[in-house]
Each structure stands twice: as C-alpha cells, then as structure tokens.
Design a protein that fits this description.
By secondary structure, the protein is of the alpha/beta class. The protein has one domain: Peptidase S8/S53 domain (Rossmann fold). It is built from ten helices and 16 strands. It has helices at about 15-20, 35-40, 70-75, 125-135, 165-180, 190-200, 205-235, 320-340, 345-355, 365-370; strands at about 5-10, 25-30, 45-50, 55, 60, 90-95, 110-115, 150-155, 185, 190, 240-245, 270-280, 285, 295-300, 305, 315. The strands form four sheets. Strands 6, 7, 8, 9, 11, 12, 13 and 14 form an eight-stranded mixed β-sheet that branches. Strand 7, helix 4 (about 125-135) and strand 8 form a beta-alpha-beta unit.
C-alpha cells in the first residue's frame, strides 16, 4: 500500500496537568493511510501527513542607513523609551539558522540546533536578520535590536538543506520549550501550493491532489493547535512559551485587481500570535501591501534594517520582519512579568501584548488585529 510521511503527537492535556514531568510524545515516519486512521482512534493523539514548510520570503530592499542611528521599527514599538531590556528572558528563533559570529550577537549565548540535516549556521540570512531585530546589539552605530538585554538565544534551523516540514516545526517547538524559551518566533508557513505540485509531479491529477492537500492542511492545523495547547499547559511546570508567527506575504493590495489572503498556518492556528506588517506613510503607519489579513497584532515590516550575513547590515520587508519586532516586545513584557510575579505565564503575556497594542487611524481590525505592538514603559 501507498506509504506517506506522518507526524504523530500525543497530547493528553488532562494527564499533562497531573503529571510530575509532562512530556510530549512525538514520532515521525512513513505509514499507510489505514495505519494513520488507526492511530487517530487513540485518545489525545493527533496525526497529520507531513507538509513542506516554506520561508515567508522577504522583499529585498536597498540598504538604508537609519536616521539618528535607530531603525524606525525600534522607535515605533516604543523600545527606546522602555525601562526594560529583556534581561533574564530566553528567545527562540525557528528559521534558517543564525550567523552566530555576527557582531550583533556579541555577548549573547547562542544555542544552535539543526533540524534540516544541513548543519548549523545560516546560508540564507533570513534567520540572522530576524534574530538581530529581536535582540541584536548595535552595529556601526545603528540600533536595530528591540530587546538588547536578552543574553540567550535559541536558533533552531528548520529551513534549509533537506528540511523542513510540519514535523520539523513541531519537533523544533518542543525543543525550544525544553530549552527554556519564553518566546518563540517563527517567520515561516505551510507550503500548500508546493505540496499540491509535489503530488502532481508524482502523477496525481489536480483534483485528487488538491483534495489530499486540503486533508493534510486540516490535520496539520489541528496538530499545531494541540501542540500550542500543550505548550501553554506546561506553564504550570515552569516550562512554557508564547508562540509568535508571521501572517504571510501573499496579499496584493496595490495590484490592478487587488486581493487579500487570510493568515496562513502555523500563524493561523489557535494558540499562536499572528503578525501583520506595517510600513511608514509620511508621519503615519499603514498596512503593507503584501500583508495577509486576520492577524492578532501588527509590527514594523517594511524597510527593516537588521543584521545581514557577513557581519554587516541588510534591509528587508515582509511579515517576517514584523514578527521579530513583536517577539522582541514580547521579551520586554516577559521581563516585566518575571520581575512582578516570578514567572512568565504565556496567556498573561499574550494579554499584555494585545491589551497594550496601539490602534492606528485607518488600520482595520482585519488588517492589523489589535494594532501596533507596544513595549512596556
């Protein structure tokens, strides 16, 4: 019989809350469709055919020298005026890896984990750029890091080489939580069109290929939501994190026939904070033309300068760039919670992010959710 690659997780939340050392049961590998159906009959077990992930590709921009040595995004989210720096907070970036030797990360403990089989490091630059926005130190007199007091970064390489898939991101989230992450930042999405094309290349007709892809998409959405619930439930045991993910760049608001696309998984899954992108419009901010709809929050995502490969700076645009701004602000709020309560409750952290977001004139809830993320004072 036809075997397919599946990811299986066991999430019994009732048992998790009673367990002394809760853990997530996870397995990955080939199964027949009949075997997968048998697996689904088990209580608390979620089974999904592995789908490919794709980078939420940024738009390359001409490199920009920020005025007054500070990027506009750091100013917009209020990081300059915050008394907090993210001290004591661990942030995970699940992306293309990181250039650990970049001067932006001087003094930061970086824990790398490769989930792709291509080795540590970053040959693309996307993960390095995102990590720089979260916690990067100044480079050449330019401030671009939101939470510069963060001294521990987890760099999970989930894109590149032969990786990755929805099984990869599930394993990486579990790893990040086990490593003590308080905030997990993801600028990636499920590659639905790529999955359909793969099936077509294997001889499937368009309609059955699309039908199978839809079923896999549904199952992965459920699996990711169950995973998010498990992560939140682990707060009672001192190991939990808020999950922040990019909404996607598939919309075309300025095309001759404009259209918008809804936020895509994993950001679309319940339990994830999804992030839209904003750009500058004179003295105001507006939703980026590419930004998908239905996000939880919005962050600066157009013309964002941060760490680039080779030790310098690079300017990019995308919801990928907005997401680390939100993750960086989440680190600041996490420090506030840690100071006030001794713990970082991911539900309470999410409430702080949403409750303190700033609404913008002309920005609808559909385009920007609660509004522009803002740092604590």
């Amino acid at each position: 019989m036809d075997e397919r690659d599946y990811v299986v997780i066991d999430v019994d939340l009732a048992h998790t809350r009673d367990a002394e050392t809760p853990d997530l049961g996870m397995s990955r590998g080939p199964m027949t469709q009949s075997e997968a159906l048998d697996q689904r009959r088990q209580p608390g077990r979620f089974v999904a055919e592995t789908m490919p992930l794709k980078l939420i590709e940024p738009f390359e921009e001409p490199d920009v020298t920020p005025s007054a040595g500070v990027t506009w995004g750091v100013e917009a989210v209020g990081a300059l005026d915050s008394t907090l720096t993210g001290a004591g907070i661990t942030v995970a970036v699940l992306d293309t890896g990181i250039e650990a030797g970049h001067p932006a990360f001087a003094g930061i403990e970086i824990v790398e984990r490769d989930f792709t089989g291509s080795g540590d490091g970053d040959t693309h630059g996307h993960g390095t750029h995102c990590a720089g926005t979260i916690a990067g130190r100044d480079v050449d007199g330019t401030r671009f890091g939101v939470a510069q007091g963060v001294t521990r970064l987890l760099a999970g390489k989930v894109l590149g080489g032969e990786g990755g898939g929805t099984d990869t991101i599930a394993a990486a989230i579990q790893w990040a939580v086990d490593e003590g992450a308080h905030v997990i930042s993801m600028s990636l999405g499920i590659d639905f069109p790529g999955f359909v094309r793969r099936l077509q290349d294997a001889g499937w007709a368009t309609e059955p290929a699309t039908s199978r892809a839809l079923a896999a998409y549904r199952d992965n959405l459920r699996l990711l939501e169950a995973l998010a619930s498990f992560v939140t439930a682990r707060f009672e045991f001192g190991r939990s994190a808020i999950l922040v993910a990019a909404a996607g760049n598939e919309s075309e608001r300025t095309a001759p026939d404009p259209y918008t696309i809804d936020v895509a998984p994993p950001a679309a899954s319940l339990g994830f904070v999804s992030v839209a992108a904003l750009g500058q419009a004179g003295t105001d901010l507006e939703v980026a033309s590419f930004s998908n709809t239905g996000a939880t929050l919005a962050g600066p995502g157009v013309g964002v300068t941060s760490a680039g490969l080779g030790g310098g700076l690079q300017t990019m645009s995308g919801t990928s760039m907005a997401t680390p701004h939100v993750a960086g602000v989440a680190a600041l709020w996490a420090e506030r919670l840690l100071t006030d309560t001794g713990t970082v409750d991911p539900d309470l952290l999410g409430d702080r992010l949403v409750g303190n977001a700033r609404s913008l004139t002309g920005l609808s809830f559909a385009d920007g959710g609660a509004g522009l993320v803002r740092a604590p004072g």
